[in-house]
Amino acid sequence: MIAACPRCAARYRIEKEKLRPDGVRLRCAKCEAVFRVRPPAGGPDAEPPTEARAPAGLGDTAVRASARPAPAVPAPAPPPGDLVLVGMPDAEAGKDLEEALRGWGLGAVTVTDGVEAILEIQRKLPRAAVLSAALPRMFGFQICELMKRNDSLKRIGVVLVGSIHHPDRYRRPPGELYGADAYVEEPDLPDALLPALQRLGISARAPRAARPAPAPARPRAPAPPPPRETLALPVDDGLGEQRAKAERLARIIVSDIILYNEEKFAAAVAAGTVLEALMPDLEEGRALFRDRIDERVRAEKDHLAEELLRVARARS
Prior knowledge:
Blueprint: E1 2-4, E2 11-13, E3 24-27, E4 34-37, E5 50-53, E6 62-64, E7 83-87, H1 91-103, E8 107-111, H2 114-124, E9 128-132, H3 140-148, E10 157-162, E11 182-185, H4 193-199, H5 240-260, H6 262-271, H7 274-277, H8 279-292, H9 295-298, H10 303-315
Parallel strand pairs: 3-6, 7-8, 7-9, 9-10, 10-11
Antiparallel strand pairs: 1-2, 3-4, 4-5
Helix pairs in contact: 5-8, 5-10
């Protein structure tokens, strides 16, 4: 016999032998309503009448019914890794950093100016924000100071990325850091960022390099006859990592030079005198370049001049 709860319509099966002539009281397992079920007047197949009561004590003997089990709900997908916002004026550098964060098992979103950064921080409330001090429209240290004064944002970890070309324009004594939780230099990214995030309690893990499987031994074939002309093959001189670092550092320095000389740069692009107009800044950048890049890589080309001309052509 089936009885329905008059409050929530949950349905219960009642054994006929437990249904006395004066009825039986039930407590709904879903809404806790107590109601009385009486024998049906229209025969054994009729719906039994019910009488609702407040969920108080049961008084006489009652049958506690169990609701039918609800359909299984699929388990929610595991949450993504902690979200980290990246604010870098150079879109390419920001993209490289975003890829590194995703490789560490973290979520990442990249912006290229300070106003967009603070808006995204307010919208998405990331676990941490990696902010370049030289962000346009709103400097990274200004965003950091704003976040640390805001109750809803001050718990977000802030890693401040220092300007490399003019560090004295941004960097305060290490005890201050504009309220930032960590400070790294841009050329040290992304390697210096991983331990900084781990110190903030973010579970970032660098992927382990997979060991290459040993190549199966092959029987030695007889040496072929020497060709008439031998092609020169490139030789691995071990400087590939230094060359990549040089290209990255050149982009950073040139980006800084343009940031601090926007009007002069625009006029020099129009006049075709970019190298001459910005020569003092280039020399200052080259001094920094010499301290960080292997001499053999520096001798291959003028990295800063080529990068400055490349940006000038892109904006002309």
